[in-house]
Design a protein that fits this description.
There is one protein chain. The chain has 433 residues and is an alpha/beta fold. The protein has two domains: 327 residues, 3-Layer(aba) Sandwich (Rossmann fold), CATH 3.40.50; 102 residues, GMP Synthetase, Chain A, domain 3, CATH 3.30.300. The protein is built from twelve helices and 20 strands. A nine-stranded mixed beta sheet has the order 4-3-5-6-7-8-9-14-13. The chain has a four-stranded mixed beta sheet with strand order 19-18-17-20. The relative contact order is 0.12. The structure holds 5'-O-[hydroxy(phenylacetyl)phosphoryl]adenosine (DLL). 5'-O-[hydroxy(phenylacetyl)phosphoryl]adenosine (DLL) binds next to strand 7, strand 8 and strand 12.
Length: 433
């Protein structure tokens, strides 16, 4: 069995990483220019040919791709190989806008599996682990990605998919699952359900690999406590392959981007200008090893920071922070930028479970922010007289974090619908688009 901690790649020198990127970028630009009419035209509009791209230093000359381009080119317009060379299609979970589809050759799948295998190994996984995959299987990349990674590591893989919480917990107990892979909101729900059933002593989990949606450090601590595990973040997006574009190591201070496969840039979302390391902006990826669907300079809309500070795990690949929000999910309330992650931080710091829903509406031409927050069962059994005091305390804490006023309504435990996939946090009724 191969070992998916690959020090010759993951701990390579900066010069070596750059050399791989230079060579692979030039090759991919030629591949795309020769085979994707849509992108060739975009390059021609900018007056450039593959000869203008000689190294990563020339990357900024290439045009960006956005989700709108993917929609315009739907379904086959950005493919770089004929369909007969492809073996798989996956699709976005579609929490925002229309679905996007991606294509893979067998080689693309092998590299994607390798990226997920690296993530599992970084979370302590070995061939002796039982990897319990509760991400959805099917068009969503979560299940297939972690499944493939787990096979590569040689772990015993439980392809649970999402849903049927009773069966999840029963298998977890009976088959001794050691690593749980699912969305953080579902992990929190599983933690709650295991506690309610009094089965905490029957589970053998040691680690969790959670991603596909934003989650705070506070939520990490809650999940770790509820399940008795170390919780690792994993990031990715369908357009670029799926989970495993980056992943956390034992240091847990950001996610290492697999730089032998992807080049990351941070840009100013308004001007498109490339920002220096350490500055916050929109993450942009270029795929440099993919065959069927190699997007170049794809704007993710995820806002984060990159760092090359040395990491105690020994890996040298650049680290991205947890996404701090999306440039398109950011709410503008009365002119103030509000990220759902800020609201979550306040709630968890005040001891609330991370079950909340944000409703934005426009009343008499003014934005109105309503937040429904679930109480814990302990809070709920307090006298109702305390609810008003608790609501007032949250209103004040949110005002000081966000700079805008939010109405808070505390609701009984389990009132807000749980999601087995990505949680639905925001309902914006303003019809702004
Ligand atoms: O969510 C792929 C994935 C599956 C990642 C399983 C991790 C685990 P999409 O459905 O295309 O793909 O959604 C991609 O989800 O642009 C981010 O906004 C968000 N996202 C993904 N991972 C994280 C994370 C999968 N760890 C979009 N933290 C991305 C915050 C995340 N947001």
């Amino acid at each position: 069995m191969e070992n998916y901690f690959q020090p010759e790649i993951e701990c390579a020198s900066q010069e070596q990483i750059r050399a791989w990127q230079n060579e692979r970028l030039c090759k991919t630009v030629k591949h795309v220019y020769n085979n994707v009419a849509y992108y060739r035209e975009k390059m021609q509009e900018k007056g450039i040919t593959p000869d203008d791209i000689r190294s990563v230093d020339d990357l900024h000359k290439l045009p960006f791709l956005t989700k709108d381009d993917l929609r315009e080119a739907y379904p086959y317009g950005l493919m770089a190989l004929p369909l007969s060379e492809c073996v798989r299609i996956q699709s976005t979970s579609g929490t925002t806008g229309r679905r996007v589809i991606a294509f893979y050759t067998q080689h693309d799948i092998d590299l994607w599996d390798e990226c997920c295998a690296r993530a599992i190994v970084a979370a302590g996984g070995t061939k002796d682990d039982v990897v319990h995959v509760s991400y959805g299987y099917g068009l969503f990349t979560g299940g297939p990605g972690l499944n493939g990674g787990s096979h590569k590591v040689g772990s015993l893989t439980l392809p649970m998919s999402s849903g049927n919480t009773d069966r999840q917990i029963q298998f977890m107990c009976d088959l001794g699952s050691t690593i749980l892979c699912c969305t953080p909101s579902y992990a929190a729900y599983l933690g709650e359900s295991i506690r309610e059933r009094g089965l905490r002593d029957k589970i053998k989990l040691k680690a969790g690999i959670f991603g596909a949606e934003a989650w705070s450090e506070e939520m990490r601590r809650d999940i770790e406590k509820a399940l008795g595990i170390k919780a690792y973040d994993i990031y990715g997006l369908t357009e670029i392959s799926g989970p495993g574009v980056s992943f956390e190591c034992s240091e847990q201070t950001g996610m290492h981007i697999n730089e032998d496969h992807f080049i990351a840039e941070i840009i100013d979302p308004d001007t498109g200008e490339v920002l220096p390391e350490g500055e916050k902006g929109e993450l942009v990826f270029s795929c440099i090893t993919k065959e069927a669907f190699p997007l170049l300079r794809y704007r993710t809309r995820d806002i984060c920071v990159l760092t090359r500070k040395p990491c105690s795990c020994g890996r040298t690949h650049v680290k991205m922070s947890k996404p701090m929000g999306r440039s398109d999910d950011m709410l503008i309330i009365k002119g103030v930028n509000v990220f759902p992650s800020q609201i979550e931080t306040v709630l968890i710091n005040k001891g609330y479970p991370a079950n909340y829903q944000i409703v934005v509406s426009r009343v008499k031409n003014s934005d109105c922010l309503d937040i429904q927050v679930e109480m814990t069962s302990e809070m709920f059994s307090d006298s109702m007289g305390q609810v008003t005091a608790r609501e007032k305390e949250l209103v004040d804490a949110l005002k000081s974090m966000l700079g805008v006023y939010a109405n808070v309504k505390l609701v009984a435990p389990k009132t807000i619908a749980r999601s087995e996939g990505k949680a639905v946090r925001i309902i914006d009724n303003r019809n702004l688009h």
